[in-house]
Specification:
With 569 residues, the protein is of the alpha+beta class. Helices cover 70% and strands 7% of the residues. It folds into 2 domains: 396 residues, Na+/H+ antiporter like fold, CATH 1.20.1530; 130 residues, Sandwich (Jelly Rolls), CATH 2.60.120.10. It is elongated. It binds adenosine-3',5'-cyclic-monophosphate (CMP).
Length: 569
């Protein structure tokens, strides 16, 4: 094989095998992720046959992590997290601390250093968002209160791990590791290094949260306005990867953190759903390569060499961690059913564990065998995770049947349910305020647009901006220069010319005459009711008319008709 085709062969063989093994895993009732890991093992250097380039695989995996974290950020909802904060924040932090301590103690009993134990403990303490979301989706439980608690809990874990990823390089030397690739680490005192790191992260987060919401939605909007789907996808990817890469270079924060914040900022835009949809296929593809590359690093021999350690780690992930989580949920005063659900959800490890372990190895904190043990634990726990859920569901059912057995924590749970419902309502209200029409509603109310294809309708809606008005508001003043076109979504208005008024209602539009003729506004338009409009700016509207001459003809005909009416009266 030529050296210069190694990237192509890696991607081709990687995708093909990942598909085959993923399909088999699915057929066996396992998450496809198990299949991706296995395909990685097959093309890895520890098994005979084709060996792919591990260095390239690592870089592709890095892209996968960036896109994955961008997706996590896009779906991150602060109000959802706020609703479950009382259980998710103490729960996740408590569980990380206890599970890390157990993991570290276990590793030290094998004669490992404290630094190695710490990395192992942290890796074992965090569950995989990907595995959790897939498991919840399969059970239709993403939107249930327990499902949302589990997701919130995991987001707190993810955030804590992002912090760990930033801090490990800083503390590497103090923990007995090396400076890794970062020659500057350790140059200053430990305290100064931590301070510099935290200041850098703080500056980055502040910049992302202050500048981001102003710039990013604007860029996405401009891209959407071109009407080209591929430019929009490109804008999304350029922002996700560009911010991740740029922030890593400028601020020294991890790719993962940069991409996560890019997602959080993009989620504020009304176009976030479109951004999520357009980045999803690539996110899926690169996430697969991430799992394949992790599998490539795995040496299956570890199961024969260290069977007891593998079992101990798998036990800690599946039972130790679950028991800790269950105990914390009960201690916080929530019902056993929530505890069981969270425990099952957390009884696995995944992407963050691999990233942490990889980092630990590059800073010479973790022995290579540590990564193998973590990978073995991940493979076992992900494979057996459906069993954990089934067990938790059984126990839940048994508790329900037992009279009074489920009374503990019911009050707190009801409170939580209320808060979650309120958060959902707020999110829905916020979405409604942004939303003007769905493509279907657009055609239903304005038959004018029936000629457009589905995609053209979507593009048109992107141009719309929602506006509300109270009764009696003057929307258009006669003689003014035209700057907007109005579509009435709800309510009634009156166009007044001299003594005459012309009522217009939902499904009508106004403001077209001046835009078409280039003359000043021909009438006063005043609301007579509570109204909601979808508005389009003058340049956008003109551009739209230029692209669709048929629609222009129809609108111009109505404008001419209205003009005639005004002259006659
Ligand atoms: P424009 O001239 O841009 O601003 C005022 C708007 O009132 C005008 O566009 C029309 O949309 C609307 N309008 C003017 N005259 C009439 C009419 N006779 N019937 C209905 N709407 C009218």
């Amino acid at each position: 094989m030529h050296h210069d085709t190694s990237l192509i062969s890696l991607i081709a063989v990687g995708f093909a095998l990942a598909f085959i093994f993923g399909f088999i895993a699915c057929r066996l009732g396992l998450p496809p992720l198990v299949g991706y890991l296995v395909s990685g093992i097959v093309i890895g250097s520890y098994t005979p046959g084709f060996v792919a380039d591990a260095h390239l695989a690592g870089q592709l995996a890095e892209i996968g992590v960036m896109l994955l974290m961008f997706g996590v950020g896009l779906h991150f909802s602060i109000s959802d997290l706020a609703a479950v904060r009382r259980i998710a924040i103490p729960g996740a932090i408590g569980q990380i601390v206890i599970a890390t301590a157990i993991g570290a103690a276990m590793a030290m009993s094998w004669g490992w250093t404290f630094g190695a134990g710490l990395v192992l403990g942290l890796s074992v303490s965090v569950a995989s968002t990907v595995v959790l979301l897939k498991a919840l989706e399969e059970r239709n439980a993403v939107d249930t209160p327990n499902g949302r608690v589990a997701v919130g809990w995991l987001i707190v874990e993810d955030l804590a791990m992002v912090l760990a990823l930033v801090l490990i390089p800083t503390f590497a030397v103090a923990l007995g590791g090396s400076t890794g690739d970062d020659a500057h680490a350790g140059e200053h005192g430990l305290f100064a290094t931590v301070a510099i790191t935290l200041v850098k992260v703080g500056a980055f987060v502040a910049l992302a949260l202050v500048v981001g919401p102003r710039v990013m939605p604007w860029i996405l909007r401009q891209a959407a306005r071109t009407g080209s789907r591929e430019l929009f996808t490109l804008a999304t990817l350029a922002l996700a990867l560009g911010i991740a890469f740029g922030s890593a270079k400028l601020f020294g924060v991890s790719f993962a953190l940069g991409a996560f914040f890019a997602g959080v900022v993009a989620s504020e835009s009304s176009l976030s759903h479109k951004a999520a949809a357009s980045s999803l296929p690539l996110q899926d593809a690169f996430a697969v390569l991430f799992f394949v590359s992790v599998g490539m690093l795995f040496d299956p021999g570890v199961i024969l060499r260290e069977p007891w350690q593998v079992l101990a780690i798998a036990g800690l992930i599946m039972f130790g961690k679950s028991l800790v989580a269950f105990g914390i949920v009960l201690a916080l005063g929530y019902p056993a059913s929530t505890g069981l659900m969270v425990s099952a959800a957390l009884a696995q490890i995944g992407e963050f564990s691999f990233i942490l372990a990889g980092l630990g190895i590059s800073y010479k904190l973790l022995p290579a065998e540590g990564l193998n043990l973590i990978l073995a634990g991940a493979l076992l726990s992900i494979t057996l995770n459906p069993l954990c859920f089934a067990g938790a569901e059984r126990l839940c059912g048994w508790l329900k049947r037992r009279k009074g057995g489920n009374a503990w924590g019911e009050k707190k749970f009801a409170l939580l349910e209320g808060e979650l419902a309120a958060a959902k309502e707020r999110a829905a209200a916020k979405a409604a305020a942004h939303k003007t029409f769905t493509p279907e509603e657009l055609v239903e109310r304005f038959p004018l647009f029936a000629k457009l294809t589905a995609e053209q309708r979507e593009v048109l809606i992107v141009h719309f901006e929602a506006r509300e008005a109270d009764p009696g508001e003057r929307i258009i003043r006669k003689g003014d220069v035209a700057d907007m076109m109005y579509f009435i979504a709800e309510g009634q208005v009156e166009a007044t010319v001299g003594e005459n008024s012309f009522p217009l209602a939902a499904g009508d539009f106004f403001g077209e005459m001046a835009l078409i003729t280039g003359e000043p506004r021909s009438a006063d338009v005043t609301t007579v009711d509570y109204c909601r409009f979808a508005t389009v700016s003058a340049p956008d509207f003109r551009q739209f008319l230029k692209r669709f001459p048929d629609i222009r003809t129809e609108i111009a005909a109505l404008a001419a008709e209205r003009g005639r009416m005004n002259r006659q009266e």
